[in-house]
Write the structure tokens for this entry.
Amino acid sequence: MRNFDSIRSHLQAAKFRLTDHDVDVLCIELSLEHGTRHQAIFLSELDDDDGRPYLRVSTAVAPITGLDAKRALIFNWESRVGYLAIGDLDGVPHLQLCENRPYEGLDPAEIDRLVLEIGGLGDRMERMLSAGGDLF
């Protein structure tokens, strides 16, 4: 994968349910647990300080109100995939599960794995933090 358009083309060919949000932002509506749960996964492009392009895969987990920061930091320490951050969602700060990968070395299988892994883990975290809710 050399650019964001090639990633978009792959995801369309792989039959993911996509919606465009901006020029360099895609949303995948991931259906989980036989359609009983759903998770929105966002893909965007960002550049590092040297101008190298990165793919960011992220999903909202929960509004930050009432969240235990210690638990989030423990997750960040123990996680091998993804990290937690705070991002704005419709004007409200939310805990986000994210993963950034440089374009070089990304292939279609890795993109699929990232989408499914971040989506599934994000949904499990959302369920845990929202008493079983399915907000995103």
